[in-house]
Design the sequence.
């Protein structure tokens, strides 16, 4: 009796479990994934003009994306098809070669000295266009177009710009000669904007990306200048008695923070560029220098040896009590505050061994070093707040610029100067 | 009562095994966008329908998300790459409608 009843009951119970109420679904939580570069298929762009294209645009894009370390560029030799336009794209061809994203483009003469560049970025799985831009540029502007394309792809795929279209300024010392240099972010197109037999130091970009402030000893003592990069015209910003050093533009470009010893020993000041009014921020017997602005221009981080050795401090841009930020190691200096406000990068030293250090200003915790120990100096944040540029030396002793991602995972060497020394790089804002 | 529990627990085990198999396949194919690996505050829910053979019956659909577009793209690609899924023996109807809750919590 019990048994005969049990079987139908059991069946009903089982079916009750299987037949869910309408709309109910089996739920699965996914919290883990893979940390691998995103596979990208970049089809070499077509050239629809005579002879050779002025610049292989897609090769510049490829080099940029590769350098970021976040993408794996697939070998075009393996591609089943080579589309240049949207209507030619067969998504399955690119799934088969393992691509997540697809980049295609065309380059052709655009009349006069102009060149037309069109590119499109596709999501191979969503089977849709993610971005598409058309540019018209003179032949000598094509590298810049390529960097902008790479920036767009970077931003669409990982959420922030690669800062490939930005520039860097640095000081090149060859023998006794100093050159203030400006180059593309990939190290290409280096050009000298000032040459001097006396030291040049501390280049700093104005937020417009068209002016540089720097320290020059051309007059036999330190003075701070501002130079227009388009016209070459320059003006004196600070020529006070004593040391004039470490200029840094405020984010709105209206002020300059700097370190002056006009009142005795190096103190921080803010110079209003329109009124030339000078405001003193620190009063201490110690050396206060190397100011770097926070994103809103309301605070500054700087280096001071008021605690015995160089350490980083933060204070309001209107003045006030500095708060000490670093406590680890006997040397923390040369700070660069990320434009998004989250990080400060600096030179971290212990027992005369130096590495690039990073501190997360939004979380409590120890500082992290993102490079090994070495002859590193002058970290400078990229406008994307994800990459840090710094000067170092190759094993043969020649000066070199290098970058490291803020998580320490991606390291790149940009440029080597044989027989020269590269110093004090500064990364420009995005154009 | 004992005989009632046995099939229910085997059913539960089948469900757990299926969930675990799907989870492990998708986790193996999910390229978490850099910078979001430990952002447990970002969540995306994807609904999928499977055929009796475990193939995707249609495109995965993001039904809720507080993450950026490239995050949503990454989870859809993860599901598409992970398919087809291994289906359990017997009736599969219970296993054909799934809701996948993505929220990256990878330890640095």
Sequence:
């Amino acid at each position: 009796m019990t048994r005969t009843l049990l079987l139908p009951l059991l069946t009903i119970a089982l079916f009750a479990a299987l037949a869910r109420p309408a709309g109910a679904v089996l739920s699965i939580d996914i919290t883990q994934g893979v940390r691998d570069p995103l596979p990208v298929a970049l089809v070499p762009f077509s050239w629809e003009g005579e002879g050779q294209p002025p610049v292989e645009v897609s090769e510049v894009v490829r080099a940029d994306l590769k350098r970021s370390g976040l993408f794996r560029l697939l070998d075009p030799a393996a591609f089943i098809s080579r589309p240049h336009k949207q209507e030619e794209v067969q998504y399955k061809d690119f799934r088969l070669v393992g691509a997540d994203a697809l980049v295609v483009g065309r380059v052709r003469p655009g009349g006069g000295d102009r060149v037309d560049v069109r590119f499109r970025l596709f999501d191979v799985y969503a089977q849709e266009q993610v971005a598409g831009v058309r540019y018209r540029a003179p032949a000598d502007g094509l590298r810049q177009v390529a960097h902008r394309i790479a920036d767009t792809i970077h931003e669409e795929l990982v959420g922030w710009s690669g800062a490939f279209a930005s520039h860097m300024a640095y000081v090149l010392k060859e023998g006794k000669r100093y050159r203030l240099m400006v180059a593309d972010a990939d190290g290409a197109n280096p050009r000298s904007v000032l040459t001097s037999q006396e030291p040049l130091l501390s280049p700093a970009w104005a937020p417009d990306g068209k002016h540089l402030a720097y320290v020059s000893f051309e007059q036999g003592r330190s003075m701070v200048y501002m130079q227009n990069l388009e016209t070459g015209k320059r003006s004196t910003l600070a020529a006070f008695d004593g040391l004039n050093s470490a200029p840094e533009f405020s984010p709105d470009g209206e002020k300059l923070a700097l370190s002056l010893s006009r009142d005795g020993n190096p103190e921080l000041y803010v110079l209003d560029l329109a009124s030339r009014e000078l405001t003193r921020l620190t009063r201490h017997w110690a050396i206060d220098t190397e100011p770097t602005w926070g994103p809103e221009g309301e605070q500054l981080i700087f280096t001071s040896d008021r605690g015995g050795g160089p350490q980083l401090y933060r204070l309001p841009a209107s003045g006030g009590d500095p708060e000490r930020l670093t406590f680890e190691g006997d040397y923390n200096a040369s700070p660069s505050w990320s434009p998004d406000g989250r990080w400060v990068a600096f030179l971290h030293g212990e027992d005369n061994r130096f590495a690039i250090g990073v501190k997360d200003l939004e979380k409590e915790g120890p500082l992290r070093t993102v490079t090994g120990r070495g002859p590193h100096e002058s970290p400078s944040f990229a406008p994307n707040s994800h990459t840090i540029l710094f000067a170092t030396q190759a094993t043969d002793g020649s000066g070199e610029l290098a970058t490291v991602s803020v998580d320490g995972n991606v390291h790149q060497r940009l440029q080597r100067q044989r027989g020269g020394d590269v110093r004090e790089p500064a990364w420009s804002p995005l154009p | 009562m004992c005989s009632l529990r046995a099939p229910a627990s085997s059913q539960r085990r089948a469900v757990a095994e299926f969930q675990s198999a799907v989870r492990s396949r998708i986790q193996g194919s999910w390229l978490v966008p850099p910078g979001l690996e430990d952002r447990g505050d970002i969540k995306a829910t994807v609904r999928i329908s499977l055929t009796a053979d475990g193939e995707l019956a249609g495109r995965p659909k993001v039904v809720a998300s507080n993450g950026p577009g490239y995050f949503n793209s990454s989870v859809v690609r993860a599901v598409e790459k992970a398919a087809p899924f291994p289906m359990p023996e017997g009736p599969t109807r219970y296993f054909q409608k799934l809701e996948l809750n993505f929220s990256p919590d990878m330890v640095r």
Notes: The first helix of chain A runs from residue 2 to 18. Chain A has a mean pLDDT of 92. The helical segments of chain A are 2-18, 57-68, 91-96, 142-158.
